[in-house]
Design brief:
6 helices; Butyryl-CoA Dehydrogenase, subunit A, domain 3; alpha+beta; structural molecule activity; 292 residues; 49% helix; single chain
Length: 292
Amino acid sequence: MPGPGGAGPVPGRCRELPVLIGLPGRPRPAALGSAPPAAAGIQRPRAPPGSAAAPRRPPPAAGPMASTSAEIIAFLLTISGWVLVSSTLPTDYWKVSTIDGTVITTATFWANLWKTCVTDSTGVSNCKDFPSMLALDGYIQACRGLMISAVCLGFFGAVFGLVGMKCTKIGGSDQTKAKIACLAGLNFILSGLCSMTSCSLYANRITSEFFDPSFVAQKYELGAALFIGWAGASLCIIGGIIFCFSIAENSNSARRGYAYNGATSVMSSRTKVHNSVPDKTPPKHFDKNAYV
């Protein structure tokens, strides 16, 4: 381009002209204000999470953690109850002679499911085992059978509880472990009911003889073993109920695992259509004045 007055070309402007026009084999820059051609296969950025276009996902549920904690608490309760029930069986003081209406007590009579004893004022005890099992009263035989059943059911419940708990690595899948935990809960509930029935039956016999005015033999009061048995039975029943509810919590958590991610947004559908159909629009050619 000639300079003013017919002079030679202005240095600098002639050097920029080839760069602005573009050398052969190099891409030409787009004009100002025009959109670049869309390249096939380039995906548009999706909306950030939490926006209107992005699907909303539910927050993670705290069901499995709460279920594991509940199972641990239930296991501790049931084991404590089973230990109390097991310690009730050999305990001596199921019934103790009453001191109601006596002025001077020279001896104390006490008995359990296996023997009857007497302790004098000097502290010496003399015990006598029951001579024949078949010659015993019916309530004593029933109490023996119920207490032995309670101890056996509690033992199997403890084994099933260890296998069915989620914090252990044995037992199979979560659904199988939930069924085993429910079975452990049923065993502990039956154990608690057996112990509760045995202690209640023995206590009923003691109270009926105590308040019977026509009963002239030695009267007794409730011993410490009955209260221990009631406490252990209550713990076994409460822990067994919690174990039984673990199968329902496991089924609810399995249903919550399949979350609905929402329908496909408009932006994502347009992006898929744009990516599937290649852009066949010819490239736009601009005049040289657009680059100056």
